[in-house]
Amino acid sequence: MFEPEQQSLNHLLAALPQDELNAWQSELQNVQLVAGQVLYESGTCMTHVFFPTTAVISLMHILEDGGSTEIAMTGHEGMVGISVFMGGESTLSRGVVQRAGHSYKLRTAFIKQAFHRSPAVMHLMLRYTQAIITQMSQIAVCNRHHTILQQLSRWLLLNLDRVSETELIVTHESIAQALGVRREGITKAAGSLQEEGLIRYTRGHLFVQDRAGLEAHTCECYGVIKHEYDRLLPQLTAT
């Protein structure tokens, strides 16, 4: 069920013209997502797209040997399922819930119709698509050229931008899977950040205690991604 007072929790929905939002209300379903839940598999046709409110969703690329790397993450700033209105019915990534929470779910047939019917919807979705493509491209560069400490700092900052608190429910193993590195590397990097008092980690709970210090440790990739989201979607990031 769609709750009008809650739509601002997802910035894309909040940016829709009021007449469009009114037309979407009967179609939007507010659903609870569980950590680890797979929303869609690589190569399958998507039946729904998702507009997270409090959940965070990882887009993972899975290799033949079972290895994985996160190519993007989406929270309340965006949506999952851009391939639906870009002309493809499937994608090569797997959508996995990284942080449990709520999301709105919408039928793919409905959003495709809205995309082609409304110039405002098309403009908004295309700008968001460019923003997330920037995130994917920059993460690929980051994973190839920067240290695990820098990658971890970037990953933590992107997560913080998508939640309303400084606590992240993660394990070293799950971070290692997201970054495509060995768990030992994450343990060493996280230990370094903890020794400096920037984070505190205990039993699957990571608390960021000094965001400014974390920003000092990250590479330019976080800033590039954030700048592009702010530039392309100013009405969203200002919300």
Intertermini distance = 23 Å
Shape: globular
- What is the β-strand count? 10
Total helices: the number is: 10
> Which percent range fits the helix content?
40-55%
Q: Largest sheet, order of strands side by side? A: 2-6-4-5
User: Structural class of the secondary elements?
Assistant: alpha+beta
What's the architecture of the largest domain in CATH terms? Sandwich
Structure description:
- It is globular, with a radius of gyration of 18 Å.
- The chain has 239 residues and is of the alpha+beta class.
- The protein folds into two domains: 4-120, Jelly Rolls; 147-218, Winged helix-like DNA-binding domain superfamily/Winged helix DNA-binding domain (Arc Repressor Mutant, subunit A).
- Helix 3 crosses helix 4 (119-145) and helix 6 (172-179) packs across helix 7.
- It is 45% helix and 21% strand.
- Strand 4 and strand 5 form a beta hairpin.
- The chain starts with 10 loop residues before the first helix and ends with a helix.
- The strands form three sheets. The chain has a four-stranded antiparallel sheet with strand order 2-6-4-5. A three-stranded antiparallel sheet has the order 1-7-3.
